[in-house]
Each structure stands twice: as C-alpha cells, then as structure tokens.
Amino acid sequence: MMPIRLAISGRNMLACRPALGLSLAALALVASLPAVPQSTQPPSGPTPVNPLLAHYSPVSDERLRNPDPGDWLMIRRTWDGWGYSPLEQISTKNVSRLRPIWIASTGQTNGHEAAPLVNNGVMFVATPGQQVLALDAKTGTFLWRYRHQMPEDVIILHPTSRGVALYGDKVFFAGGDAVLIALDARTGKEIWKTKVGDNTSGYYMSLAPQVAGGKVIVGTSGGELGVRGFVAAFDPESGKELWRTFMIPAPGQPGSETWPPGGDEWKTGGASVWVTGNYDAQSNLAYWGTGNGGPWMGDRRPGDNLYTSSTVAIDVATGDIKGYFQYHPNDSWDWDEVSPPILVDYVRGGKTIKGLIDVARDGYIRYLDRGNGEITFVDGAPFVKQNAFHGLDPKTGRADVDDEHKPGTGKTVSFCPSQWGGKNWPPVAFNPKTRLMYVPANENLCMTTVADAMPPEYSPGLDYTGVTTMLRVQPGADHIGEVQAWNVDTGKKVWHHNFATSANWGPMLTTGGGLVFSGGTNDRLFRAFDAAGGRLLWEYPTNSGVLGQPVSYIVDGKQYVAVLSGWGIDSASVQSRLNSILPGQYPEVPQGGAVWVFAVK
C-alpha cells in the first residue's frame, strides 16, 4: 500500500444542504470529549468506575459465537465477516425519519476507520491519535479515555486505527508502534502491553485485533518498508505470545521454492497483514489476507512469491498454514489483498458450496471453496475494468497476466484498476435475506508507474518500493465510486449506484430491515439504500467524510445506527491526486473526527 505523506489542513464545517442540514438541536448534541491530560502519570488512588460500567457484561466465546442481536461485539459483528445486523426496527418504511440522536467529537483529525463496538449499552471506539474511548451508547456520555503514548521517532505510514476487540473484561488495542495492549473495560486502565514487531524496522499496526479460539490475533503493516509479514497470537490474560506465523516462508519451508533460490529476498519481501481476518469456529481456521511484495517490482524477486497477495487459512490452535489462495503471483501492482474473504455458503450448479467470497483489489470477485480445509477456486469475474489480466484459469483461478500491463524495472507501465484497486480495505457486507453481497467499488481509476532503473537498497524503516506512481481517470468516465450488489448464488450483479464526482471509501452495513448503509464519499453524506433494489432512501450530511465501519445496536429496546466520520489517509491522498488532475473538481474535504449515532424520530 502506498505510503501516505500528504498533510491536509483542517477547515470549518461546510454548509449543509438546506433540506438535510443539521438542526440547532442536533448541533447542540455535539459534545467534544475532555482534553487529553498532558501528564502521562496515572492519577493516584483507585480509579472510579462509572455505574454503567460497574455492571459490565464480560464477553465470552459463546457470546462471540452467538451474539445477541442488540450487541455489536466485533468489527463485523460475526466471525464470518458479513457486516449484517438482524435488527428490523429501522426499515425501508421508516428510514426516512432517521435523525442524529447524539454526536461526539473525538478531538482528532485524519482518517477515522474503526467500527464502534457495543456491549450491553457501552460503546468502545478507536480513533487516530492512538485513542480508545468508552461512551454510553444511548446518550454519548463520556465514560473513559485511553491514550497510548508512542516514541517521538515512531514509524507509522497510516496513522489510523480500524478498531478494538472485546474479550472477557478486557478491551484489546493494536498500538501504532506495533504493540498489543489490554485495557480494563470498566476503567480504561492498561493491564498489560506486549511488543509485537520491531517498529524501528518498519513494523506498525492499524488493524483491529481478532479474538478467536480464546486467543488475541494480530498482524502488522509495513509492506513498503521491507518487512516480512506475519500473523501472531497472544494469551488474553498475560499477553504472552503463543505462536507466530510468517507469511513468507524461510528456505526449506513449504512455498520457499517460489522465491529466488539462495537469495535473501524473502527476508524483505512484504506480505504484510493489516486488515483483521475472518474465522470459521467449526474448523478453527482463521482467514487472513496478505499484502504486496517488496520491493514493488516483481522482476526483482522472480517467482510466485508465496504468500504475497493471498488469503491464508491458519489453524488458530497452532498457527500452522492449512491452505491458501494467491490472487496474483509475483505481485507488481501494489494490489494488497489484505481484506479477508467473507464466509458464505453459496450455490453453484444446484450444489451448496462451503464458500469464501473475495472482492479483490485486482478488480476480480472470486468464489472459493473452503470445504476441506484447503482453499480451491470455483469461479470468478471482474467487477470493474481490468486490463492487467487476460482472464483467470477456469480450473485453478490463476491469473493470466498481460505483460504489457505488468510493471517492471526501468519500465513505464499503465494498468487498471489503480494501485488502490477496484475495492480497497473497506469491507463488503452480505445479507442472508436478499442473498446479495454489497461492494464499495471504484471504477475508471487507472495507474501509471515509472519504476527505477536501479533496484532500491534496503535500509530498515525506510521506503523500499523503487517506483513513482501517477493516478489517471479513464477518458470519458462519467463516475468513479459505486455501490454494487451481487447475488452470490448466480454470480450476477443485481444493482449498482454510481457517484459521479467521488471515489467510494465506504465500508458497508446491511440489516434485517432491508437496508444497506454506507458513506465513503467526498460530499460527507451517510446513506441508506434499499437492500433488494438499490433505491436511495435516505442521506444525511456529517461533519467530514464517512470512513468508519457502520454498526447497529439496541439499548432499552430502541435500535440505533452508529458510524465514525473523519476524512484522511488514502481517501485524502486520492482526493488530492484527483484534484491535481481535474483542478477544482475534487477540493479538500474538511477533517475532524466524530461519532454519529442515529435513530428514528
């Protein structure tokens, strides 16, 4: 993933559309959280516990396996990654009456990409600035704040957090300097902290931890810095490391033959892991995605380069790799395939397949079979314009690469989709009632790469890409961003909604009330669509661009929808590049993070 080096200054909130503007009453609900104390010393004496937290409900394996419909206990609510809430109070009939109930400023700028987790009326939110916040999910009342202090010379190319994990009476947070932290859910007090990776060598973290099989599991970013990616599991009580599995095999390990023999390329070959995996409790296998190879030009590391740009099935008990599927061998496009496939059983030829469905950066949807523990190909097709592949092998799914559109040392090459992909990290959602999968897609964006004639030299913690990139918009393009809906049993697209003047960075939520929620656009709107037919039913302007993962929950019998608004990171970088191509058409989006909570009035 391309390092973000763009600094964007803040602006005042843009004027809202008159028909959709915030009322004075709604604005009055905006509550800035208390300022972070300058002192890092904890207060003396016992930490007070808010009455709501005094009765905190510990999160067990059973509650994660079968969550109450009113809770949202992990970033996609369930281990299968569906992003589906069965709640039905908010429906296609009343969603037009959805209004903000409370709004809380996080006190931070940059990209707010986390999912708010809700456990029995308590909300936990991770933000940029290495914060974890606890809020009353009904009122927005501030309960506690934790702020992780990082060293001044920290290396962190993507200063965001995609969320926390809950287990027992703890909240788990992945610190940007590659440390895993356990907090007391009742007080926010740090219980333990353990080092995951060497930040001075380029390892950092921005993902939400995964809790599976009684373990806390994380991976690290750093694919542009010459790291060797890995997934590691830790004991939730002590923080002790239980196993560590590298995503690039060492010489002699299975898959090492796909790296240059006798060389050291595997030591700095990338395959970073920076989006939380999904999990099959029945097989005890977790499915994690891996990133690009390093350096970017694949001809510097001949071979398929396992397990770059792959989905890897990991035995949670041991850390052993039980299966994999590689989306594009010898990655040279920076198409990290870190987003894990969703676990969905779908139908092909009258037969139900125990499946995985992956919507890849490289522009293809692939339907896979996880039935025997391994991962095998069923079928696949592009969901956006794609010119780097002639197609996929119908039996194996291996990409047939068009060398004219594959970057290489000393070459200038153009390809579609862009390095940010047909879909970036924002997750898809699946609704079991409609049998549709909802995709935040980007069409008509392509890339030109100019690769250095000399290979980059590896130096710990420094850029290890060896390429310059230029974004392009397809001639005649009438839109960029899309929301797409695909029937998983037919493999056909059912509906789509286009955004004429914005890319789409919006994670998806779908509900039992027949709705799809998403933001992600530069107009700051949060939207609801009819899940079956795609009709836009509702939209509301927020303070910034909505990059957070929406959730839905119940408190005291009332259903709410919550999402984080706060533009930055890759969305800001692409916006800036688009504005340089088409000046004035893609102006800066105001920054500033806030939690927005909606309900029907």
Summarize the structure in short.
With 601 residues, the chain is mainly β.
Beta-strand portion reads 35-45%
Strand order of the largest sheet: 1-3-39-38-37
Portion of residues in helices?
under 10%
Please count the helical segments. 4
- Beta strand count: 39
Based on secondary structure, the structural category is mainly beta
Round the mean pLDDT to the nearest integer and report it.
92
| Amino-to-carboxy terminus distance | 42 Å
Q: Judging from the principal axes of the Cα atoms, what is the shape?
A: globular
The largest sheet, given as strand count, sense and whether it forms a barrel, is: 5 strands, mixed
Uncertain segments of ≥5 residues (pLDDT<50)?
1-44
Task: Give Rg in angstroms.
Answer: 22 Å
Written description of the protein model:
- With 601 residues, this protein is mainly β.
- The longest helix has 12 residues, at 570-581.
- It is globular and about 60 Å long.
- 56% of the residues are buried.
Topology:
Layout: H1 24-28, E1 30-32, H2 51-54, H3 61-65, E2 84-85, E3 98-105, E4 117-119, E5 122-127, E6 131-136, E7 142-147, E8 165-167, E9 170-175, E10 179-184, E11 190-195, E12 210-212, E13 215-219, E14 230-234, E15 241-246, E16 278-280, E17 285-289, E18 310-315, E19 321-326, E20 342-348, E21 351-359, E22 364-369, E23 376-382, E24 389-392, E25 399-401, E26 412-415, E27 429-431, E28 436-442, E29 445-451, E30 467-473, E31 481-487, E32 492-499, E33 509-511, E34 515-518, E35 525-530, E36 536-541, E37 551-555, E38 558-565, H4 570-581, E39 594-600
